Amino acid sequence: MKFKNLKILLISILFVNLSFFVNAKPVPESFADLAEKLTPSVVYISTTQTVVTNVNPFPFEFPPGSPFEDMFKEFGTPQTRKASALGSGFIIDSKGIVITNNHVIKGAEDILVRVEGDKEYKAKVLGADPLSDIAVLKIESKEKLVSVKFGDSDKARIGDWVIAIGNPFGLGGTVTSGIISARNRDIGMSRYEDFIQTDASINVGNSGGPLFDMNGDVIGINTAILGQAGSIGIGFAIPSNSAKKVIEQLIEFGETKRGWLGVRIQVVTKEIADVEKLDKPRGALVASVAENSPSDKAGIKAGDIILEFNGVLINEMKELPKIVAQTEVGKTVNVKVWRNQKEISKKIKLGRLETSEDFKVKEKKDPKTTEIESLKINVRLIEAKDIEERNLPKNTKGLVITEIANDSPINYLKAGNIIVEAQKKTIKTIGDLEIAVKQALNSEEKTLLIAIYNNQNQRRYIGVKLN
Q: Which GO MF terms are attached to this record (predicted)?
């Protein structure tokens, strides 16, 4: 009986293992058929622009690194010359719509697109978007051009095979293969990052080229490499699902129309989550609200934590800008926020994101200070001239930090930062801050939640662990 049961068990395990291998995708024997089919849709882009350089007026050269090298640069004669650059792209419409990176064609006076190795066309820019690093070009051809279509990048999994075709170092028609190494990569290039990482060889000149899946669909636009040289097995591509809406808008309007909430946000740290009695760090903390913005009109306040936007849970702060940007301008959405240790809902009609929401400020320092021993900082009361010079809201109250000790619990802040809130209460006097510190020390979390304006005039919340 025991032998029979063991036999059944072994047979079951065998069937499970066979099932696993049947469902697993096989390693491709060759990429030749796929490469042959897709290569005609990949184009090679060359650009020229005029640049101004200083020409050395002396009949000799200083060695690199010499202290005289920079000293005599100013005596150089300005001279214009033509500079060229190379990149890649791909055709998505047989009528001549070409996709590439914005940085490939930025500042270009002339753009040439080479198709199938030897046919050259002058291209015009239909639209370009620096925030996503996507550009759409148009070429005119009497012949029907070979095009490719976008795939669903959300279905691409880590470990899936991919191929990249492009123009690295001017070597057109170069095909490389690899796998998807990671998804949702953020490498600090722009505010809307969600890169696919691949170990397919990506080099200088691959920018703007396609990353294909094994169905021959474009699931990414090759955009960045780690390091200057590339070819080290770490390349990054814009996911097709992120790119498609941008491309549609660039074709239709020549520009993008992104949704806008009108808030500055920051990461919800464990300390902030503890103070706010949130179950875990999640959502996006509203650091400040732009005056007369959609959020301002809807009643969103600094200190709110956005937990859900239009039915989508916000697990990490970086998710919110992407979701908002992809939402239609003028659409009214439901937003769930955490305020005063409970969840509330707000209806917000989205505005349109302009090119810049930031504003410049001037630094100001004042020698009149008072020491806050518990925080090991020196501060002074904010004055009317601070508010005027730094373009702060007229009713701003707070304390300007003038000095911070190296062993201060907030030694990562800078002189000139302004503390405007502590424990969600406005700081009007030095005594207000001292009371808030004492309350934090007596609390179970021993965490002080402060709101500051940094030296770029950006409002931020910070959770400070006190000993």
A: serine-type endopeptidase activity
Kindly report the CATH class assigned to 36-139.
mainly beta
Q: One of 133, 213, 217, 304 is an active-site residue; which one?
A: 133
C-alpha closest to that of 327 among 316, 338, 319, 336 = 319
What's the predicted TM-score (pTM) here? 0.66
Alpha-carbon distances, residue 138 vs 124, 170, 356 (angstroms)? 5, 21, 28
How many angstroms separate the CA atoms of 130 and 145, rounded?
27
Domains of the chain, by residue range, sit at 36-139, 153-253, 260-352, 370-465
Indicate the length of the chain as a whole number: 467
Catalytic residue among 41, 88, 207, 295: 207
pLDDT tens by residue, 334-363: 999 999 899 999 999 999 987 444 323 233
Long-range contacts of 103-109 (CB under 8 A, 24+ apart): 103/133, 103/207, 104/45, 104/47, 104/135, 104/207, 104/208, 105/45, 105/47, 105/135, 105/137, 106/130, 107/49, 108/47, 108/48, 108/49, 109/47, 109/48, 109/49, 109/50
| CATH topology identical between 36-139 and 153-253 | yes
Confidence of residue 21 (pLDDT cuts 50, 70, 90): very low
Residue 103 is among the residues annotated as catalytic for this protein: yes
Q: Which of 41, 103, 201, 304 is catalytic?
A: 103
Give the fold, CATH level 3, of 260-352: Pdz3 Domain (2.30.42)
CA distance 21 to 370: 71
User: What's the CATH superfamily of 370-465?
Assistant: PDZ domain (2.30.42.10)
Tell me how far apart the alpha carbons of residues 194 and 184 are, in angstroms, rounded to a whole number.
4
Q: Which of 134, 208, 213 minimizes the C-alpha distance to 168?
A: 208
CB 151 within 8 A of CB 210: no
Catalytic (active site) residue 133: yes
- Token pair for 109: 């006076």
Element (H or E) spanning 175, and its range? strand 174-185
| 131 within 8 A of 191, measured Cβ to Cβ | yes
pLDDT tens, position by position, 79-131: 666 667 789 999 999 999 999 999 999 888 899 999 987 789 999 999 999 98
CATH level 3 topology of 153-253: Thrombin, subunit H (2.40.10)
User: Are 453 and 462 spatial neighbours (Cβ–Cβ below 8 Å)?
Assistant: no
Q: Which residues contact 371 (CB under 8 A, 6 or more apart)?
A: 377, 378
